[in-house]
Amino acid sequence: MKPKRTSQTLVLCILMFCLITTIKDLPSFSEEMEGKYQITSEGRNPLDIFNAVNHSQYVYWIRYLTDEIGTRPLPITSSGNTRARNWLLSTFNSFNSDRLIVEEIGGHKSVVALLPGVYHNTSNKIIVVGAHFDTVPTTKGANDNAGGVSFVLEACRVLANSGVDFNYDIYFICFNGEEQAFYGSFEMVNYFKALHKKVLICINADMILNDDTSRPMDEKQIIYHKGDRTMGRGEKYGEWGRLLERISEQLGKGYCHSEPTGEFDEFGILSDHSAFWNSNYPALFAHTIRDSQYHQPGDTLDNPELNTTYPVETTASTAVLAALTSQYGREILDNVNDTDADNLDNQLELILGTNVSDSDSDGDGFTDFYEYTNSWDPLNPLIPEETKNITTTSVTSTNEYSNESESENAELPSKNSESTSSGFINFLLLLPTVLWTRKREKY
User: Fold this and answer.
1) Which CATH number fits domain 46-330: 3.40.630.10, 3.40.50.2300, 2.130.10.10, 3.40.50.1970?
2) How far is 387 from 361, CA to CA, in rounded Å?
3) What is the pTM of this model?
4) What does the alpha-carbon distance between residue 168 and residue 421 come to, in Å, rounded to a whole number?
5) Which of 195, 309, 326, 357 is the most buried (most CB within 10 A)?
6) Distance between CA atoms of 110 and 128, rounded to whole angstroms?
7) How many other C-beta atoms lie within 10 A of the C-beta of residue 405?
């Protein structure tokens, strides 16, 4: 019998060895998903993109369009329209000519800068950031619509120079002919249809400089989506508007507010977003109320009704939304699931730049949720100076953010998969030794 027991032990050891080797070679969930959920490369995160939007640069382009070029009406052969197009072509090319494809498209020569994605040749998904650059003959058009043009230019400058290889194509478009009949935007929609493009989202900015003093600070920039709750017609594309609003809240001052157009623009007839809505493409309309100088010679930056601070946040939030959508497609709209069960939904984690599959993105022993709720940086492993004397244990015992369903002394969620895994493996490694020792004692 003794030889038989020895052979059984040998077989057991071999099985244990195979099991241990398999477990050690299997990638963890976080390892498999780390690349997918790393929004940007080279250490950049959404906040970096948001903060890269520059107020002085934004204002400079408005002043150049209004003071140096002036009126920009159709026809396309007019001096102002021609000068504006040439300047836009030159400006887009100055950002990153190695990455951007810049051209005029359509009979009305809208100026387009394409930032190709990694899947440029294999995917038809695109994101559009747009605004019209033309004016009526009577105005230099600061609010209508040099502020919108600067919105497009600055978002393009930041993303083209971010060093990030985005997945899906991003189109930055300065539409021509909006003041007459949205000529440029309808031409671009037909262009996309001919190429069988799928527009994930279009963000159109038109007249975003006016400071509506009747609105509270968290509604200084209105992001309209299609629909009206009160009219019983439901809403379309509201999830995109709420995403942009959330980006503004989390990374900025929260100036952006999403709401349905309602009777204000029930049929989408106020700007270039109408061309996209007409073709059932998702689109948002960034817009504020008309100022007293609408289509008048006084539509310049000297108009005291205008404010450039709030639209800069809209520009930054749009740049982040375009970046996130280019990386993750419609997956960025997921504000329900919580992959790593850390009480931060996936959408919020992607906005913050944290890892949705790891509850402790910076590996400092504190969960992303704890750092977020205490206004720490969940991407910085350095503990704030005033809390260096706090240990993870003491934080756990005084955690006030536990779920209601858990006990008051429930431990803070922590990154413990490695220790659990290594403990199990060590147990398996020791098991054959223990069994062999017990056999020797018995026999």
Assistant:
1) 3.40.630.10
2) 19
3) 0.79
4) 37
5) 326
6) 13
7) 6
User: For the purposes of burial, counting CB atoms within 10 Å of the CB of 33, is it exposed (0-12), middle (13-18) or buried (19 or more)?
Assistant: middle
Could you give the CA distance from residue 139 to residue 135 in angstroms, rounded to a whole number? 7
Query: What residues have CB less than 8 Å from 281, skipping those under 6 apart?
Result: 189, 192, 199, 202
Question: E strand or H helix at 159, and its extent?
Answer: helix 147-160
Distance, first Cα to last Cα, the chain? 11
Which residue matches tokens 């003794």? 2
Angle (nearest 5°) at CA 368 between 357 and 406: 90
Query: What number of residues does the chain have?
Result: 443
Cis amide bond preceding 124, omega within 30: no
Identify residue 22 by its one-letter amino acid code. T
Give the three-class secondary structure for 290.
Answer: coil
Low-confidence ranges of the chain (pLDDT < 70): 1-44, 227-235, 262-269, 385-443
Q: Distance from CA of residue 74 to its chain's centroid?
A: 35
* Token pair recorded at residue 228: 């009206």
Q: What are phi and psi of 8, to 5 degrees?
A: -65, -40
Location of structure tokens 């504190």: 366
pLDDT of 289:
85
d(C-alpha 50, C-alpha 246), whole Å = 13
Q: How far apart are CA 368 and CA 388, in angstroms?
A: 17
Residue 249: burial class (beta carbons within 10 Å; 0-12, 13-18, 19+): middle
Residues 6+ apart with CB under 8 A from 222: 215, 256, 257, 258, 259, 286, 287, 288
**Distance between CA 311 and CA 155 in Å, rounded?**
12
Record the tokens describing residue 390, joined without a space.
Answer: 């706090």
Task: List the chain domain ranges.
Answer: 46-330
Helix (H) or strand (E) holding 125: strand 125-132
CB neighbour list of residue 380: distance below 8 Å, 6 or more residues apart: 362, 364
Please state, in angstroms and rounded to a whole number, the distance separating the CA atoms of residues 21 and 411. Answer: 32
Give residue-wise pLDDT tens across range 145-194. Answer: 999 999 999 999 999 999 999 999 999 999 999 999 999 999 999 999 99
